Amino acid sequence: MHKILTIAVREYQAMVATKAFLVAIALMPILMLGGAWLPGLLQGMETPTPRTIAVIDNTEQLFDQIQRAAEDRNRTLEQDRAVSRASTSSAFPESPSAAGKAVVEDEDEQAKRALGLEEIHPYLLEKVPVEDFGDEQRLALSERIRKGELYAFIEIPAEVLQPRPLTPDNIISPSAELMQLAGMRWVAQDAALSDARRWAEGVLNQIIRARRLSASINPLVLPTVMLELDRKSTLESAGLYFRDEAGRIVSEEKPNEITSLMLPMGIMMLMFMVIMMAAQPMLESVLEEKTLRIAEVLLGSANSRQLMTGKLLGNVAGSLTVFVLYSGGGIAAAIWQGYSDSVPWHVLPWFVVFQVLAVMLYSSIFMAIAASVTQLREAQSLLLPVWMVVMMPLFVWFNIIREPNSTMSTAISFFPPSTPMVMTMRMATGATIPWWQSVLSMALMVVGTAVGVLVAARIYRVGILRQGKAPRFTEMLQWAFQRNQV
């Protein structure tokens, strides 16, 4: 036991007491999570640029109303920017609890502004004559878009305002063709993801609906009808109801959409960072010891089981240090900003347990691969499938956050290599996870880690003293299932 602890302390010091560790601690959150906030920072440096949109209005009736809608939107944007400049230029709040309350806007708007999702560019409309408009004119407008002179152009067919014949049968059972108006066309370089396209579609449909109503009913009652049609009932988000300590039935606080998305993703990325920062040094350490023949000296004082166990313990201690630094900094920042209620305290114990198991599993796999090869490029080819398994939750994280109790989310959380990231992410969503799923996933992770460490230990024992070409995968499996290896 003394040898194991000595090796563990040595590995912990080699991992933590270095300048490279401090640099990695500082840069890793920026590299992994900074991409979420970078668009907001870049958009903060971006100046509003007018975007010219050409309109080919074959109805000869809609352009003026679209232009007024664009002017109203531009004035609203300018007023919002004025409010934002006034709030950001004001003095800092006197107390941390007042932070974030200076700007008069809700949390969703603040989050959209921080993430760079806020639209800031004004729209200028240009009327294009409809006479003899055809492919040549479309090509000329497309060339203007390529040169940056134009942002997009819209073609509005005349049929959007023409009424279609109705019969009693059509009214009772309307066909899809009857319900669909003639299609308009939006042409731009970013046609699929353009915010301007969504704005234009909403405005045009609203104007077309008003025009068709005015042609169908008495103009004297049109204002009243339009007012009644435009009145909407908001569907506000609310938390689940529960009984508080006083016996009252109350609702949880309104969930914030951006927070509900970013918090589980941040939990998952923290787990991924800890695994990556803990497992990769094991690969380099074992590979260095083997190539420099240091392992032969170490095995003269301790057997392979003691050597591997000590390395794993030191690595786990180092990963817990990373967790304490990151989680402590995140919790302190949340409390300082007045968001202590958003900290998922119930997830932290599960996170620690899953993290320890994940670090042991992946670190042992990395050690086994490093012990089997003599060069880094050989290890990289063997690590590719391992990294694919580690990163699998990153490919489906949005689906898991959107439906944490779906069949897919539940099934992936029972797959031990993905269990740590998926289960902690599901818990952080705020959804009620059945207790048996948490217990079963923990049991499967314990069994999976035990099997993984045992197999890796057998491969490590055979491979650490082996020289020559890299073994095949089937050969490594033979080492793992040979008897009397450990």
Describe it.
- With 486 residues, the protein is mainly alpha-helical.
- It has two domains: 261 residues, no CATH class; 181 residues, no CATH class.
- 64% of the residues lie in helices and 6% in strands.
- It has 19 helices and six strands.
- Strands 2-1-3-4 form a four-stranded mixed β-sheet, sandwiched between helices.
- A hairpin with a 5-residue loop joins strand 5 and strand 6.
- Helix 10 packs antiparallel against helix 12, helix 10 runs antiparallel to helix 17 and helix 13 packs antiparallel against helix 17.
- The longest helix has 35 residues.
- It is elongated, with a radius of gyration of 31 Å.
- 26% of the residues are buried.
What level of helicity do the residues show?
Answer: 55-70%
What is the overall pLDDT average?
77
Number of domains: 2
Low-confidence stretches: 90-108
Query: Element order, helices and strands?
Result: HHEHHEHEHHEHHEEHHHHHHHHHH
Q: Helix count, per DSSP?
A: 19
Total strand segments: 6
Principal-axis shape: elongated
Supply the helix-strand structural class. mainly alpha
Strand content of the residues, in percent? 5-15%
* Biggest sheet, spatial arrangement of strands: 2-1-3-4
